[in-house]
What we know:
By secondary structure, the chain is of the alpha/beta class.
Amino acid sequence: MEKLIYLDNAATTALKPQVLEAMKPYLLENYSNPNSVYTFAQQSKNAIEEARKVIAGALGAKENEIYFTAGGSESDNWALKGCAEKLAEKGKHIITTKIEHHAVLHTCEYLEKQGCEVTYLDVDEDGLISLEALEQAIRPDTVLISIMFANNEIGTVEPIREIGKIAKKHGVLFHTDAVQAFGHMPIDVNEMQIDMLSASAHKFHGPKGVGFFYMRNGAKLNAFIHGGAQERAKRAGTSNVPGIVGMGKAVELALDGMKERADKIAAIRDHMIERVLKEIPYARLNGHRTLRLSNNANFCFRFIEGESLLIMLDQKGICASSGSACTSGSLDPSHVLLAIGLPHEIAHGSLRLTLSEENTLEEADYVVDSLKAIVERLRGMSPLYEDFVKNNQK
Ligand SMILES: *Cc1c(COP(=O)(O)O)cnc(C)c1O
């Protein structure tokens, strides 16, 4: 097999060599527990506080509003369960959307079993929520609005600033799962009136198993992990020093030249989208054409099974994703594609390609050429497609 072409950056990203270099001293030389009193521990303590400063700076937040966690899923759980618990006296109503990551959706389902009421907002055919519908959904007992910054499957970026405004106007806390957005686009928690935010290092070229939770001072959720006094006694457990240091370095690198990088990636992505839509019949782009992550392309190809497509792309050395939760035994199409109104049979033929700055125009062309051949071959074997062509010729 030739060189690997990695187009699954929404699932995870490659660790940057500079990130590994920043982490190394805290894996080998200074393995101290940052909570110990001796001088040897001071260095790792300083290193995690330095990372906290970089991350707070990236968001326009205060340092004591950043809590280190084990990643996006944990931060999402904290926001939802924390609000449900802390604000139980005010009410038990949560507003979210139908297209959230399962870290939010499955937590909401759990909370429903605990007696919470959840409104799952619809999205339009591009994946955008309606601000009117959001405002109408707010009730006196609403304790939280949790709406993702950008969708991990179709890339649509939600109107976060406007959502923040509405939440503030009604005095409801606003959490956003920014796992796909943070490190890829500018975010200011004050300008956008965000009260809580989840992010994860491995989605922006940092290490896996580490992330952070931004919680505005004043939101005051209870501790999420009970134990030691780490993270101002809100999230116990010995700090993942190398992970946190790596995340800090990854944030630094992400901020440096963010706009230029995003533009460069978007240009390659747009080239790919244009070619696919022009050269492959019955292909459809999912997600908003312009309000989308710069690295995301998501297509549906009628008369094709997403799984077969992925296997054949893999044989060409191309790593992609169907964007659907197809695990062995379950062939449910993606909840996101169903939410944007696609019928089951079309949602099954989906393909998500998510780029990084490592991808080149040549790779994009190779991927489109491969895709063309594969789609043609798979359709050639499809009786449905044969019937469709026959009927269209009449
Ligand atoms: C990846 C992802 C998560 C989960 O993050 P982990 O760090 O892997 O737990 C949550 N939300 C979104 C939108 C994601 O893309």
